[in-house]
Please model this.
Amino acid sequence: MPRITPNLWFDTQGKEAAEFYCSIFPNSKITNVLYYGEVGPRPAGTVLTVDFELDGQPYTAINGGPEFTFDEAVSLLINCADQDEVDYYWSRLLADGGQESQCGWLKDKYGMSWQVVPEQLGEVLSDPDPERAQRAMKAMFGMRKIDVAALRAAADGD
Model:
């Protein structure tokens, strides 16, 4: 099967965004930058696309213009090992103008939606005891950043 590469459309900030993302995720790098030539539609020498990897996953950022913007219909999910990872990615992605949403969702300063989710979330929400699972779900719906300890406490009825 061919590899699928998410292509993220920016107005002019594709390289800046790729550098920002690569600074946050380990084992990440920009692999190629392509520039507009004389045929445009943007001025020759401005960035057209940026190929980059976030921990081995390829992405392409394209500076296509202001016609299209991100919305919550598409998001990138970060499966975090624990609360420390949740806290790290949450704070880094919110830096310099990001916006919190609910249930572990946020938008970074470029408008890209992210879900910052601890691995323990699925475990708590799928507890074999439906009452525990529902208490945890109710708690999650009231959260912005997911708090594993608070989810477990809610599941326990504390």
User: Anything to note?
Assistant: The domain at 71-158 is CATH 3.10.180.10 (2,3-Dihydroxybiphenyl 1,2-Dioxygenase; domain 1). The chain has five helices and eight strands. The mean pLDDT is 95. The longest helix spans residues 83-94.
